[in-house]
Amino acid sequence: MNKKQLITIFIAIGILSAMLIFPPWQYRLHIGRGVKSVPGPYRFIFMGAPEVPITSKSDGDTYFNHYSQRFWQAEIDWVRLILPSIVVVLIASGLVLYYKGFSTVGYAEAEERGKLWKVDVTEAGLVTVVNFLINNKGKEIVLAGEKHIITGKEKLDVEIIAMNCCDPESFYKDISAYGEVKNFEFSSYRVSVPAEQIPKIDKIGDVAEIKFKPEAHDFWMKTIKQEDRK
Predict the structure, then answer these.
(1) Alpha helices of 22-167 — where are they, by DSSP H?
(2) 6 touches 43 (CB < 8 A)
(3) What is the pLDDT of residues 60-85, one digit of tens each?
């Protein structure tokens, strides 16, 4: 469950709690088999029922001073309490389902999810960062001191090591389909590649290793660990 879902639930609980602590009241008068009711105020539950007012003004055909005060009873207006509560629950439930698409994945979970696609050629730290970015699309983070919305297409500077048996030209062409090859000297290729493309490169048979460039590793690991502490 992500932060937006939790906030929605806490707000709903707060509203429902306030409604229970300050419930609506009504004044009821039993006349034979019939019941006459008049909406009353909202009142702190621990203060007890409000006193039945005495007034010369009418509410429809109801006169509080027409009958003795002792014939009227103040009761919680369950209709005015339950119906808004149902609306709050329905709205909160809808928002929780809506925000399910904004699931937030922390550092530890991103690290664990990486095991689902990692085939032992991608550096563990890179796996964690890639899964953090892929699974937090739409989340706002602070990147290089500025607010940034994660898209999963963030460029990562990585070094891709090719197996000695592969054809250099074919391998270059394969890698170029996923990212920008900045420089290479067989069998090492420095590539700027969108995060969401890393799992695809991981599956290329001629790839021996994918690892972060040191400066990129430090930058991204620091970024996601800071977000994880929020």
Answers:
(1) 78-98, 107-113, 124-134
(2) no
(3) 444 555 555 567 788 899 999 999 99
